[in-house]
Structure formats: C-alpha cells, structure tokens
Design brief:
alpha/beta; 12 strands; 11% strand; 631 residues
Length: 631
C-alpha cells in the first residue's frame, strides 16, 4: 500500500520532497522510506519514471512515459489491495506492530478503508488474536491495541512472516535485508551443538528468530514472567543471539533470547533422544532388519547411515507418542501408492513398535518411517551407478559413433573409465575386465560382464533407460519391465464381483476370503491385509482402492476386483485387491503405476465403476493399456 501512496505523493508536485517529510507523512522511519525508494529505482526504467535526488532539497519524480507510469500505478494499487479475507489479519498485524493504541480512523486511512469496515474487521481480528493468545482491547477515547505474552506475539508475527504477509516482510526489512543470513546463522549454531531439525521446524525457527532480530516487537517489562519457568534451550538461544550480534550487528533483548529458548523447546525434532530409548529401539530394529534382509535378500543392515537415522527416528517417535504427540504431513497419501514395498516394510516395523512399546503410529507417522526405506533404496541405486569404474563400448569400428556414446555415458557414470573397441577385437574384453559392456553389435561369445545392447545413436530416453537398467540391475533395456505384470493379465474373472457390503472393510474381507477359498492365497493372507489396513488406509484418489497384505502370502499372482454399489461408502468405488507371491514382489511398482494413471482420470474410473461383469471390466482395462502404450 505504501509504495503506491509514495509514488502518488511524489507525482502530485513538481517540487522536491525531503525523506524526513515523507517519513512523517507515512508514519515510518526514514530508513523505510529510503528502502522503498531503492525498490522503486530498481524498476523505474521499465515503467516510465525516474526518481532523482536533489542535494539539500530531497526527492523529485520525473515522468518520462505517462502511459507506462499510469499502468504501473494501476498495477500497484491492484496488487497491494488487501483482500477482504485478509483485512482482519492484516489489521491485527498492524496493531501488534504498533504496540500501543491506534484509532479506527487511523487504521481506515492506513488501509484505505471506511471506519465501519475497520470496526467490522476488528471483531474478526479479535477472534483471530484469541487463537494466538493475543487480546484485542478497545476503549472509547484511546482506540484499539493488541496485547499478549511476548512469545505469543512473536509466534503470531512469525506465522504471518511464513505466510508472506507484505506488512510483516516490509517491517523486518528495515533491520534485516536478507533473511537467508538468519538461516545461515541458525545452521551454524545447530551444527556447533550437533543437532538437526526437520525442515518444517527449521523454517518455523528461522521466522521466529527473524522476528526477534528485526526488533519490531515493542515489549513491556515481561522478562520476569518468562524467567520464572526454567527454559531448556537457553544456552542455544544465547549462542544464536551472540552469533546474530557478531554477524549482523543486531542486539537481541533478554526477552528475545528467552522467547527463542522457549520456542526451541517446542520443536519436536530438537528433543533429546534418551540413551536408554535408543538402546531398546536398536535391538528391536536390528532384529527386524535381520529378518527382512534374510527373507527379501535386501541389504538394509549394511547401510549404517540408514540404521542410525532409523534408530534415532523411532526413539523420538516412541517418546513423542507416549506423550500423546503426533505429526501430520500433507504428501503421505499422494506418495504412498508409488512406494508400496517400502510402506509394507514400515507397517511391519510399526507392528513391532506396537508390540514392544505399546504405541501405535498414525498413517502419516508410518509414511515418515517408510521414507527411510525409500531413501535407502535410492542410495543403493545411486551407489550402483557410482560403483561402475570401467565401461567398454563395442561398435563396428571402435571410433565414430562409439566416441559420441562414450561422451554421452560420461554424464551418467562420472567415476567410470570408458574405453571403445571394435567388434573385431572382442577378444580383448576379457583382458579389459570391465564392470559393464555397452554394445551396438551382437557379441560372439558369452559376455564377461553385464551387457546392455543399444542403438548407434542414443536419445535422452535411451540414456535414461541405461541409467535405470544399472540402478535396478536389469540389464535388458529393451525389455518392458511392466509387460509381465499388466493389470489385465493379473485380474482373475472368478475373483470379480459387484458388492453391496456395508463398509469398505467388509468388502475387502469378502474379497480376501475368496482369494483364500479359491487357492490364490494362504490362510495368513486375510490377517496380513487387516494389519496393512490398520496402519495405512488404501483408499486413494477418485475412489480407487488398492488393499494388499503387509507381507506376500500369495500362492498364485492375481488381482481381485470389487465394484462398490453401497452408496453409504461414497469414497469407495473400485477395489483392486492385490495378491502376489514372494517371487513377484517387484510387480507392485508396475501395478501401482497403472492404478495411479487410472485414479487420475475421472472418466476411466467411471467406466470401470459401471462394469457389471469380469469380461467387460478386463476389456476396459485392456483398452486403457493400449491407449497408454500408444502414447
């Protein structure tokens, strides 16, 4: 709002106006006016005006292109207009920043509103403030003010800063030109004491400390009240204060330091991890991972980073759940379907946590545990790329196109020595002893290393296929990994049914019983699916559901289909109950990809939901598969 008012003020006169006069006019500091003028100067050439300084007189505006300048003024007035939904919050922010009484008339002038509109907004501001422990006090003679505890005031302003409030951003800019400097200081302080924070907690802490460092809160003498309660992270808060003074020259008050210490104590990911908790958790995790590695031929225990991070996470999780605290994340449900196997490992581990510690993680907590397994798998795949030390490219001549391929491959395998040989010199392959062979021609003898056959010219998709082949140890890049596991080939007609059961759980249970009765799964299948559902709901987008057991109990690979006709379960439309053998565990990826494509197409979901027979359903799936292959 102030930027457009500043330009309008300068445009009303051809005379120079002093910075102090402008500061008085807008009730801000001279530094704020200088900052606003600096911003305007950075855009002046593109918008048809120039701000010039006249020594001893002040600032004057020169309009060089009236059309451009008028358009810019109109843009500013529109972009800085406060939406009705934001009025109350913005007025509350202004009252907090003021620190004293402000009349409704002054608020009306500052925000270009009428007094009745301001009075209405103040009623809503009172409600918003109460959520943050801030009280709106109104008197007939003095006006309105916002009062609250120092930490509550700072917390509200920090939340406003995180939300990008123009008023708060403008206020802190007077003291701190770049918030990244605060971030760097916090990272340094956390590193010194050997602590880490979840990203969300780190962002919240940065905003809180920025508010304190900017010195925009006008405190009353509240230090004594804050000092009455022992504060856990006071040493860390004092370290942060000292570093801010050293690096930025900004001195925090004692109240600021106490508020930061209190804020640090409210960050779940900064809590101490009890040694006894890590010891108890460690034995459970080691036992669990040993079983997983033996059964699935994985290498989780070899990844020391993975094990240590998982132990610390679970120890804090147990402590947090025992205290009745949980966390919520927004991306769990969207990400779960594409990482089914990692989710299953996490669910199995949560069963162990429940049986050993008596706490039951939420679905979001389960996914956060699954993230460790997903990260391990990604590290393993990346390590396969970096472990390739020697590659031999075989072509017709050993030069020409092979040289180009060599250059292209160096981008995928940065640590590898890449040699080229002619197909006539294939005998030297044994002597070269490569880790990987890339060949444009058929090899005459059995390859002495994993081999990928390619065309002479590699496209970006070819390079991606080679990278994925090595990452997943599947060296036949011409093979479509999903061909064997298409949805249409896995759906069994005798496992298709239209259901009117009362609940989603009843529908899934009915399908599970059929899988066992007809010989597709063993007797543990039903209970294993129940365990999976207990920790993680499998109802996804547009009513597509994909229940499956937490461990493979399939005797034969199959997918059972249920079409829901019970309108009480509106969010459930089509159920794909997945039943796989241990040998086909990798099929989850291909199945998940297909289901994800369907659930994001409302028309396809409707077509499947309308089917009344297995034949009709399978034919619809085949049509969808053909159309996607054609793309």
């Amino acid at each position: 709002m102030r930027t457009s008012r500043l330009l309008n003020q300068l445009s009303r006169t051809s005379e120079a106006i002093s910075v102090s006069q402008l500061a008085h006019e807008f009730n801000v500091s001279e530094r704020t006016v200088q900052s606003d003028l600096s911003d305007l100067r950075s855009t002046q050439h593109d918008h048809g005006f120039q701000i010039v300084s006249e020594r001893g007189k002040g600032i004057r505006l020169l309009v060089k292109d009236s059309d451009l300048f008028s358009s810019f003024l109109e843009f500013l007035s529109q972009s800085e207009f406060i939406e009705p939904s934001e009025r109350s919050k913005t007025i509350l922010q202004a009252l907090v920043l003021s620190g004293g009484f402000v009349s409704a008339e002054d608020l009306a002038v500052n925000f270009d509103l009428s007094v009745p509109v301001v009075n209405m907004a103040l009623q809503e501001a009172s409600r918003i403030g109460s959520n943050f422990g801030i009280d709106i006090q109104r008197t007939r003679h003095h006006g309105t003010r916002a009062v609250g505890k120092p930490d509550d005031i700072r917390f509200f302003l920090a939340r406003s800063l995180l939300a990008g409030s123009p008023l708060i951003v403008s206020a802190i800019r007077e003291s701190i030109d770049k918030e990244e400097k605060i971030s760097a200081i916090l990272l340094s302080c956390l590193s010194k004491i050997g602590r880490n924070l979840r990203y969300e907690d780190f962002c919240a802490l940065c905003a809180f400390v920025t508010i304190c460092a900017a010195n925009i809160v006008r405190d009353t003498n509240e230090e004594r009240e804050l000092s009455l309660t022992p504060i856990k992270f006071l040493d860390l808060a004092e370290l942060i204060s000292e570093e801010i003074y050293k690096k930025l020259g900004l001195k925090l008050t004692k109240v600021d330091v106490l508020c930061i210490a209190k804020a640090l104590g409210q960050l779940p990911s900064l809590e101490d991890i009890p040694t006894t908790a890590i010891s108890e958790v460690s034995s459970v995790i080691i036992s669990f991972l040993t079983g997983i590695d033996e059964e699935y031929q994985t290498s989780f225990l070899e990844d020391k980073t993975f094990v240590e991070m998982l132990e610390a996470h679970i120890a804090l999780l147990v402590k947090r759940l025992l205290a009745g605290k949980t966390v919520t994340i927004s991306f769990a449900e969207k990400s779960e379907l594409g990482n089914s196997l990692s989710m299953d490992f996490a669910v199995q581990l949560c069963e162990k946590i429940y049986s050993n510690f008596g706490v039951e993680p939420t679905q979001d907590e389960v996914f956060l545990i699954a993230m460790h397994f997903i990260a391990h798998e990604e590290r393993t795949r990346q390590n396969r790329l970096f472990s390739i030390a020697h590659i031999v490219v075989v072509c017709a001549t050993g030069g020409g196109s092979a040289t180009l391929v060599k250059m292209q491959l160096s981008g995928i395998f940065p640590n590898a020595q890449i040699d080229t040989v002619s197909y006539l010199d294939q005998r030297v392959l044994v002597e070269l002893n490569p880790d990987l062979i890339i060949s444009m021609v058929p090899l005459l003898e059995k390859p002495c290393a994993p081999t990928i056959y390619i065309n002479e010219i590699l496209s970006p998709s070819d390079l991606s296929a080679i990278s994925n082949a090595v990452r997943h140890s599947n060296y036949d890049v011409n093979q479509d990994c999903g061909t064997k596991y298409t949805l249409s080939s896995l759906i069994e007609p005798e496992l298709f049914a239209v259901s009117d059961q009362n609940t989603y759980q009843d529908i899934v249970y009915e399908a599970c019983i059929d899988c066992v009765r007809l010989g597709y799964a063993d007797e543990e299948f039903v209970n294993s699916v129940k365990v999976r559902e207990k920790f993680s709901n499998t109802i996804f987008l547009n009513g597509i559901c994909a229940p499956h057991p937490v461990e493979p109990h399939g005797i034969r690979d199959a997918i059972a289909i249920r079409i829901n006709r019970n309108k009480k379960e509106k969010e459930v439309r089509v159920i794909f109950l997945i039943c796989l053998t241990k040998q086909s565990i990798e099929a989850y990826k291909a199945i998940s990809t297909s289901l994800f494509s369907i659930m994001n197409n409302q028309e396809e979901v409707s077509l499947l939901e309308s089917c009344i027979s297995a034949e009709e359903f399978i034919n619809q799936i085949k049509k969808m598969e053909v159309s996607k292959d054609g793309c």
